Amino acid sequence: MSNLNVQIPDSLYKQIEALAAKENMSLEQLVAIALPAQVSAWMPKDYIEEKAKRGSWNKFQQVLNKVPNVVLNFCKDAQ
C-alpha cells in the first residue's frame, strides 16, 4: 500500500467527514472506497476498448452457442 497526502477544500473535507460518520467508517476507509470507484468510472471506455482488442469474436460466439435458447416468463400472472 502507498500513502497519499492531498490538499482538499475544507467544505469537501466536512462532507467526507459527515458521510464517514453516517456510514460508521473512518475517513481513510471512505476515501479508500470512493477513490477507486471514481477512477474506474473515468476509465471504462479505454478499458473496454483495450479488452476488445484482445478479444475474439469467434471465441465469444463459441461460448454464446453453449447457452441454451430458453424463453423465460417472469410475469405468469400477466397472461
Written account of the structure:
62% of the residues lie in helices and 0% in strands. It is built from 4 helices and no strands. The chain has helices spanning 10-22, 27-42, 44-54, 57-65. The protein is elongated, with a radius of gyration of 22 Å.
Approximate shape: elongated
CA gyration radius, whole angstroms: 22 Å
Residue windows where pLDDT falls under 50 for at least 5 positions: none
End-to-end Cα distance, whole Å, is 56 Å
The amount of beta strand, in percent, is under 5%
Helices and strands, with pairings:
Elements: H1 10-22, H2 27-42, H3 44-54, H4 57-65
Helix pairs in contact: 1-2
Notable characteristics:
4 helices; 0% strand; 79 residues; elongated; mainly alpha; 62% helix
Short description:
By secondary structure, this protein is mostly helical. It has helices at residues 10-22, 27-42, 44-54, 57-65. It has four helices and no strands.
